Amino acid sequence: MEISRSKWDSFIKCPLCFYLLEKHQIKPPSTPGHPINSRVDALLKKNWWIRAKGEPHPIFKEYNLNFVPYNGLDPETLKKYRFNRSGVRAKSKKTGIEIFGALDDLWLNKDTNEIVVLDYKATSNKKLGDYTSSDKHYHKSYLRQLDFYAYLLKLNDFKVHDIGYWLICNAQDESQKTFNKKVNFKTTLLSYKLKTDYIEDTLVDLKACLESDKMPKSGSDCDNCRWYDEKLILKKGDNDENIKAIEIINALLPSLVEMVKMQSNAKISNESDTKKFKELMKKNENEFKNLKKKLEEIEWAKKLPVHIAIKNSQWRKDYPHI
Ligand code: SF4
């Protein structure tokens, strides 16, 4: 099994979304990308002349840092480290999962001879906050991103400087008055004391989540599921047919769940289990006929696949593993 940095981060943000995608290939609704940010990243990565000369970037001098771009990797390896699908790779110590992540760049602290972890960020903010003290979820994700890179490098036997950096390009140059096909950026460096000691435990949780048949709870980073559940409650109050359908589902489906559970746990492999399964089918035959008939009578249910009706019912909360 292999897990990328972004998948690991998505697990931390919301185990439910991670589980649905990785275990059941249920994709969340797509969102637009960040092409302008990606373009800035790509241009920053092209600063080859600085690397080739081994000279410090002017910004290091501005921040009084004795850093230079790290020159210890051959161009092919650097390219691999930067490419999303390859990245820096290592085996997690506690889980054996192959973890990987693509770096933006690497610097060298000449005072300590340690590798410096960094990430490029492009933004447009009048007040550029400090990510390290921010309570915004996506800023917390930035912190984890640096932690993860540092951990990958440590596992690859690099001596890693314990402070990581963001090179932030902020499109808020007040001296720019007109567009004229250009946007000026101000560049700043923001530092962060890296933490890597929590990563293995999160990977243990991630692995357990993937191996479990039980759906995990959603995380606190995203409000969509809360919004969805609240919307359903409201809809239920407005629509008699919905109430009727949900009540029927809640009353009849537990038996169906028992059957699905037996099937999915592959517990019907021997003769006695097969017998048990047939008995359960027989016992609930009338209930299923009733359910089918009643659902057919309801306009709402006719329009929706049954699995959506199931998903929407209170019953889902009692049987989250299905
Ligand atoms: S809370 Fe958000 S991230 Fe989590 S499962 Fe729901 S939609 Fe996905």
Structural description of this entry:
This protein has helices at 5-13, 15-24, 35-45, 48-53, 58-62, 75-82, 137-155, 199-211, 224-238, 240-264, 271-283, 285-297, 299-303, 306-312, 315-318; strands at residues 2-4, 67-69, 88-91, 98-101, 105-109, 114-123, 163-170, 186-193. It has 322 residues and is an alpha/beta fold. It has 2 domains: 2-220, Lambda Exonuclease, Chain A (Alpha-Beta Complex), CATH 3.90.320; 234-318, no CATH class. The chain has a 5-stranded mixed sheet. A 3-stranded mixed sheet has the order 1-4-3. The model has no long low-confidence stretch (mean pLDDT 84). The structure holds iron/sulfur cluster. Residues 14, 16-17, 28, 218-219, 222, 224-225 line the site of iron/sulfur cluster.
CATH topology of the largest domain, by name, is Lambda Exonuclease, Chain A
Question: What is the alpha-carbon Rg in Å?
Answer: 26 Å
Give the averaged pLDDT, no decimals.
84
User: What distance separates the N and C termini?
Assistant: 23 Å
Give a nutshell description of this structure.
The chain has 322 residues and is of the alpha/beta class. The protein has 2 domains: 2-220, Lambda Exonuclease, Chain A; 234-318, no CATH class. It is built from 15 helices and 8 strands.
